[in-house]
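Hey L., structure's done. Input below.
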Amino acid sequence: EQSIDRLLDTVADKGEMLVADELDATFLQLFGRIFCGRSLSLDDIQMFKDYNTGLFALGLWDPQFKTAQAALGTLVAANIEALQQARARDFSGPLDGMWKVLTASVDETGHVISDERCATAGVIFTWGAYAEQSALC
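Output:
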């Protein structure tokens, strides 16, 4: 809610809005809440941007890819923590739906998906939605 208020204040001050640029962090927050079951910190938002930039630079073997790898590890760790908290609440929180679905899912061999794989899926879902939105910039 606060990010929407800041967005509206910024638009009011500027008198214009560049939709993709202005909504960048807002979309990441939305995707984080939907797919990771948590609000993203400013550091998380920057790491998603680093991850996005690094993955797009992968074909060039750009040094940003190493930044993307580090960002992925940190984001997965944060998601594992969010998943563990959701599990402790028996997936009863308002943002726990994705974790409940993922932890009840099985992989291609019929085994329950690991917490790390669930956490990585949360990052990939959020990044995928963000990549679509950031392509507008």
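The helical segments are 2-14, 19-35, 42-57, 64-88, 97-103, 115-134. The first helix runs from residue 2 to 14.

-- N.
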